[in-house]
Amino acid sequence: MSSETEELQVFLKQWRNGLRERQVAHFQLSANYARYSTWLGSGAAVFAAIVGTSIISGLEKGGDQAGRIVFALLSLLSALLAALQTFLDYPKRSHEHNAAAVEFGHLRRECEIILTRNDAVEMRKRAEELRAAWGDAEKRAPSLLQTTLNRVRAEAQASASIPPRDSPTGGQLTGTTGLE
To answer: What is the residue range of 42's domain?
Structure first.
């Protein structure tokens, strides 16, 4: 293998790591937004059900002043949660981050395929195509918070003690106990 090919492989491994970080970060944000949507929607539904039940049961007719105030506040909270759910549009955000994660995963796999090549000219050509596709993906993808990327990087570095698949041990644990 030529030194140019080795240099390209080092470079492409860095790209693979960057693509993986973006894939994981977008998947995490997609899951978070889906969870937020569920919690907001559930809260709005529960409070609306409580208020609706109190109205049907006639609490307003015979209830005391404190009961009316509590149910009025629950009604306002229910409306607020429903408005937040509409305004924040967590389902759309979740979908956008999921689509970005899938796209970055595809690009990461393409990068891994390029890494299997031994021809520097072909690797350089495909790397240039990958660079252009990555740029397009970044333009389409929703924004990532730097804190999210930093957390994903820290998690990846913490798990770096496990040899990657392209390590000299082939990603297999050495020794009989796996602790050597």
So the answer is: 3-160
How many domains, in total, are found in the chain? 1
Query: Whole-prediction pTM value?
Result: 0.76
Burial degree of 99 (CB within 10 A; 0-12, 13-18, 19+): middle
Q: Does residue 175 lie within any of the structural domains?
A: no
Burial, 147: exposed, middle or buried (Cβ in 10 Å; 0-12, 13-18, 19+)?
exposed
With 0-12 / 13-18 / 19 or more C-beta atoms within 10 angstroms meaning exposed / middle / buried, residue 70 is middle
* CA triple 130-134-138, angle to 5 deg: 175
- Residue of 120, 141, 115 lying closest to 30 (CA atoms): 141
Q: Is 56 a domain residue? A: yes
Q: Alpha-carbon distance 7 to 99, whole Å?
A: 32
- 3 state DSSP class of 163: coil
Task: Chunk the chain into consecutive blocks of 10 residues (it has 180) and report each block's average pLDDT, rounded to whole numbers.
Answer: 89 95 96 94 86 68 73 86 90 97 98 94 96 97 94 89 44 32
Q: Which residue bears the tokens 């937004």?
A: 33
58: phi then psi, degrees, rounded to nearest 5? 80, 20
Closest CA to 98 of 23, 18, 19: 23
